[in-house]
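Hi R.,

Quick one: here's the VanZ family protein sequence you asked about.
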Amino acid sequence: MSNLISTITDFIARQRWLGWFWTLLILVACTWPGKDIPAAPIMGFDKIVHSSLFMVWIILFLLAYPQKTRMLVLLGMAYGLGLEFYQQLLPFDRTFDWWDAVADAVGVILGLGIKTMVLDRYRQRLY
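And here's the predicted structure, written out as C-alpha cells:
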C-alpha cells in the first residue's frame, strides 16, 4: 500500500499538465449555466463542491511545484475569487457569491494541510 501511494504521488508530481487540466475543468464547471446543474441534495452542498475542487487543485499543483507553496496558495485563493467576479459577468444565471470564494479558500487551505501533514509526512517515512 505504501508503495502504491508513493508511486501515485510521484506520477502526479511528474504530470504537471494535470493541474492545468483541473484548472480548466474548474473554469468549465463555474461557467456552466446554473439552471442546468441538478439541485443540491443537502443544504450547503455547493460549498462542499467548491472546497473539494480547490482542495484537489492545490494538491495537484503542490505535488508538481513543491517549492512554490506560498505563491500557489495565494494563486488558488485569487483564482477562486476571480471566478466569482467572472461569474457575475456571465449573461445567464450565474452570480457573484462571497461564500463560494470563502469555500474555495477553505479548500485551498485544507488541500495544503493534506499535502503537508499527510502526504509529505507519509512520503518522508518511506525514504
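The chain has a mean pLDDT of 88.

Cheers,
M.
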